[in-house]
Amino acid sequence: MRIAIPTKDGMLCPHFGHCRQFAIVDVDTEKREILKVEMLTPPEHEPGIIPEWLKGLGCNMVIAGGMGARAIDALADSGVGVVCGAPEHAPHDIVMDYLQGQLMTQGYTCGDRPRRSSRTGCRQREGNI
Questions:
Q1: Of residues 54, 49, 1, the one with CA closest to residue 27
Q2: CA-CA distances (angstroms) from residue 41 to 10, 18, 37, 78, 79?
Q3: CB 76 within 8 A of CB 121
Q4: Per-residue pLDDT tens for 67-114?
Q5: Can you give the pTM of this predicted structure?
């Protein structure tokens, strides 16, 4: 599995489209371990560009703080899963919590809801993921 996490100054950025870099994390889900982490600079923030870029990198999951409905829909259309409401922690800690089933989410921080939430798979509830 390849997980993308938007970051700013080495921590999760609270808004997906405003991050400075993405941590691209390759994981072994069976062994629950991180295999590789790359820090990559995304293209300019325009609707649909970052989701397309992440899909092109082979990402199949995004763990974010807040994310707008268009980005959620664009990722879903590309077959990329989304977890919203993750805390502003280091990517390593977020991924390890996710792999252990202990990632605490707080819901959205962008003030909007996905238009097709039943289809996108964006996990909106508060609590452990």
A1: 1
A2: 12, 11, 13, 20, 22
A3: yes
A4: 888 888 899 898 999 999 999 999 999 999 999 999 988 765 454 444
A5: 0.84
Residue-level pLDDT at 18: 84
Give 50's Cβ-side CA count (13 Å radius).
Answer: 25
DSSP letters for 13-71 = -SBGGG-SEEEEEEEETTTTEEEEEEEEPPPP--TTHHHHHHHHTT--EEE-SB--HHH
Are 55 and 79 in contact by the 8 Å Cβ rule? The answer is yes
The Cα 8–Cα 14 span in angstroms is: 9
Q: Which fold has domain 2-128?
A: Nucleotidyltransferase; domain 5 (3.30.420)
Instruction: Determine contact, residues 123/105, Cβ cutoff 8 Å.
Output: yes
Q: Reply yes or no on whether the pLDDT at 48 is more than 60.
A: yes
Domain ranges across the chain: 2-128
With beta carbons less than 8 A apart as the criterion, state whether 58 and 2 touch: yes
